[in-house]
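Hi support team,

I'm filing this because I wasn't sure whether my run with LMY7XDAE finished correctly. The job status page said complete, but I'd like someone to confirm that the output block is well-formed before I use it downstream. Pasting the exact inputs I used:
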Amino acid sequence: MSIGKIIDGKAFAAGLRERIAQAVPTFVEQAGRKPGLAVVLVGEDPASSVYVRSKGKMTVAVGMDSFEFKRPATIGQDDLLDLIDELNQDDRVDGILVQLPLPDHIDEAAVIAAIDPAKDVDGFHVVNAGRLATGQEALVPCTPMGCIMLLKDELGDLSGKEAVVIGRSNIVGKPMAQLLLAENATVTIAHSRTHDLASVVHRADIVVAAVGRPEMVKGEWIKPGATVIDVGINRVPDDEDTGKSRIVGDVATAEALAHVGAITPVPGGVGPMTIAVLLRNTLVAAHARAGLTKPDGL
Ligand SMILES: Nc1nc2c(c(=O)[nH]1)N[C@@H](CN(C=O)c1ccc(C(=O)N[C@@H](CCC(=O)O)C(=O)O)cc1)CN2
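And here is everything the job wrote out:
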């Protein structure tokens, strides 16, 4: 029995950050300033706080300016929209990211809609979603963009490949399908109402699992030799006595390894790509705002 390859997303993300760090000084020379990323954190969710801290550190590490805005979970919607407006007007800021999820009393869609599409480094604004869907230059959501980079690195040309995306969220599933289409893959989006998901998955050369359900995709569903991208990050109890937990993906990796050609692990697969692509998008947005051509290789 052969075992599939583990795709090292952590190493790929480190390489991407290195290429970004090499491109930043040329931008500084041409634009006379550093690219800048503003990250807004509402509340004190521990995981969100970790991600925001990590974003700040990595932004500075590649030579960009990092601006962090922490607001209490009780902030009113109007005050949050005022902050976004200030950041839209601030010329030092090329990218604006509002860490999700937001507290229930905030209308997430209204906050995303308030971000200047030129600074929407998350690629969540409808203008960027529409541009992506119609094949125009767009800022693309970081996680699906990271998945496409890993897929192209692993498989080269994706043209004609049968791809199944499980999950239809605006943040991952839909943009993922659009990106695969743009690479000329034949794309199916499966979701909670899909009949016989196992058979749908079994015909795929490429499986992208983004459902948020621990180890839902079983090894025997996978077509032999398929490439599997696991977007899920699910915390599950590890040891009932100690109360410890561990992170698993949406794919039952241990059993899938006997079927796949290659698979991203969780952790260490898609997750690290999310922040690396955020830095890439910030540099791309900075070039566009400064009227400069996007550097090659990003
Ligand atoms: N505005 C946004 N909010 C959120 C996004 C986003 O892209 N934009 N994505 C996620 C959180 N996220 C970044 O914000 C993120 C999630 C996971 C990772 C990561 O590297 N995960 C590690 C495991 C981490 C762990 O041990 O807990 C991995 O998979 O190896 C990075 C960034 C939701 N919110």
